[in-house]
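Q: I'm writing a short explainer about Large ribosomal subunit protein uL22 for a general audience and would like to include a description of its predicted shape. Could you first generate the structure from this sequence?
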Amino acid sequence: MGKAATPRALSDNEAQAVARMLRVSPQKLNLVAGLIRGKKVSAALADLEFSRKRIARDVKKCLESAIANAENNHNLDVDDLVVSQAFVGKALVMKRFHARARGRGARIEKPFSNLTIVVREVAEQA
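A: Of course. Here's the predicted structure. Afterward I'll give you a sentence or two in plain language.
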């Protein structure tokens, strides 16, 4: 006699993965997420592999997780997957103080971000 399961938010041909508490500002993470939006997963993985951004490694790991979820949990074909959505959200911001000259202090903000990647199976056009 448990609570009824919530219905699935995504359609049947979609799968997602969420990376939480990534130690980067949302603005910087959104630049990397913009690289892969709308691309086939093979092209997106190649772009992330050769990106010079530090956070690209974590974005690649999240994309690989979304691909694995699509393959193992939803029985989707990996070769037909496209990154349909990649969006960034704010997480917490650690506040620190840094000693400055003449007895003053400056506030240092260390932001964290969340990343959600949704992949969709698209049928090939002949």
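A: For your explainer, you could say: Residues 14-121 form a domain with the Ribosomal Protein L22; Chain A fold (CATH 3.90.470.10).
Q: Perfect, that's easy to follow.
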